[in-house]
Amino acid sequence: MAVIKAIQDVTDRIAARSATSRKDYLDRIEKARGAGVHRSVLSCGNLAHGFAACAPSDKAKLAGDTALNLGIVTSYNDMLSAHQPYETYPQVLKEAAREIGATAQVAGGVPAMCDGVTQGQPGMDLSLFSRDVIAMATAVSLSHNMFDAAVFLGICDKIVPGLMIGALTFGHLPAVFVPAGPMTSGLPNDEKSRVRQLYMEGKVGRAELLEAEAKSYHGPGTCTFYGTANSNQMLMEIMGLHLPGSSFVNPGTPLREALTREAAKRALSLTAQGNDYTPIGHIINEKAIVNGMVGLHATGGSTNHTMHLIAIANAAGLKVTWDDMSDLSDAVPLLARVYPNGLADVNHFHAAGGMGFLIRELLDGGFLHEDVKTVWGTGLSGYSVEAKLVDDKLSFEPAPAKSGNEKILAPASAAFSRTGGLKLLKGNLGRSVIKISAVKPEHRFVEAPVRVFHSQQGLQDAFKAGELTSDFIAVIRFSGPKAIGMPELHKLTPTLGILQDRGLKVALVTDGRMSGASGKVPAAIHMTPEAVDGGPISKLRDGDLVRLDAEAGTLQFLGDEAELLSRTPATEDLRPEHFGMGRELFAGFRHLVGAADRGASVFEDA
């Protein structure tokens, strides 16, 4: 199946741009493979430590050179609803490994923080940096050289990208990512948002707000809106690292457990000792990365991945830019409407045909590369299926010919939009990204004076004081990765939504983040250069006229540009934001971190 020219052009230029770094990466992982992942290279003392706590039968297998050993890297904790189901996974995976004569060990754990808990709190300043901590923790977990393959247990925002970066650092090992699925549907997301706005307006109290939130986030599993966590799951499947059809199966179901067992067996079938050696470093190439970006655009996925995908690609020796993403967005149709881009949640998306339907439609339209390696041992067409249990056995059946609900999941012939949900904005203020799939066309152009704030709280205070009564563009600066770690600014969403509902033209410009929950208000985020680097955003003043045109892809200061650039950049004493809740430990990260358009990573380029 050939892809359309626009897709191939981006793929080709990534490959050309990455020729040297990709070759170096492949050479490194081939050398690692040659050095051996076998326990025979360990001294007797090393090996004895490695299996000291194992059952006698597992010790006997690990003492030899031929039995396979599966590493389990887990992000389990029982504070994250999405990760709580992972508590039982290690035992299930070990049992599945033993069924085929192999062993499995928990190689290590990685931290997993919940942005939903830290939203608007000091801990959110650690969120983006946690991705690179997770990558390093993954490397520590696998550094014992005890494993022939690995499975990775993670779902949420920075966790999957961090696991991916770590896994690609051990790119000679086969890797299967194992999801746990979304919680069942609770209070509809639009109703939850309605109550949030009422609370901001003082029309309901905290008790009513907490009741609505608890009915929305009510049990084990991923939050059901289409934010970064569920965008992660889409990406792992469309890039061939999940089992087909496994991303959005609810926790605690027989099908979920069957898929988990099969994931362990599949990972062990891909090792260097077998005939189907398929390490993750061979799966993730320029075609797989482009497939991930196409999926992101076709579903209106998380803006966080404008950074994460660049960092993931870089870990595999691939150089990806925002321009690549923007060009793909212009070519890829929007096929999904899942909150905040619609009223449905991911359970409704899955029921309408889910990933199998989406992948088939994109393949048939020439938007995806079919000729890729996957953990399933097929090209991507092997993912145009639904996973089911038939007579208690795992089965994969062709995805439905028609969408179960074309208001949620559309065929390519009747796309919601001919272009994707993410756009690159360029202009004399720098570069930023915007998610427009949830923004109505009439709100995608805003030309208004700016109101400049150095924190979310500053805008909140102005709102409560009744100062925001005319059209304006809110500029929230000193929120970038070097400044304070680039927190998400979701406390602004209800406030700006209220003002928009009152008939004002409003927009947000920031060097901070908004993530997959970016909603109905146009938000130019990840502004680069950031304010702390003296970028043009640091020179804006209250009253400056700015034009945000999401359709044209521009963000412009409309005054005398030379005069703007001659201004002395604003400064802010950020020291109070660098202490408390562990933030003092991340000073080195703030010093090392790169720009948002290069992945906002603390790691050197591959």
User: How far apart, in Å, are the first and last alpha carbons?
Assistant: 31 Å
Helices, by number, come to: 23
Main sheet record: 8 strands, mixed
Number of strands: 14
Mean pLDDT score, rounded? 93
Broad structural category:
alpha/beta
Strand order of the largest sheet: 7-8-12-11-10-9-13-14
Helix share, percent: 25-40%
Pathway: Carbohydrate metabolism; Entner-Doudoroff pathway
GO cellular component, one term: cytosol
Catalytic activity: 6-phospho-D-gluconate = 2-dehydro-3-deoxy-6-phospho-D-gluconate + H2O
Binding site for [4Fe-4S] cluster: 156, 223
Brief synopsis:
With 606 residues, this protein is α/β, with parallel strands linked by helices. The chain is built from 23 helices and 14 strands. It folds into four domains: 5-35 and 68-184 and 219-398, no CATH class; 36-64, no CATH class; 192-217, no CATH class; 422-598, IlvD/EDD C-terminal domain-like (Glucose Oxidase, domain 1).
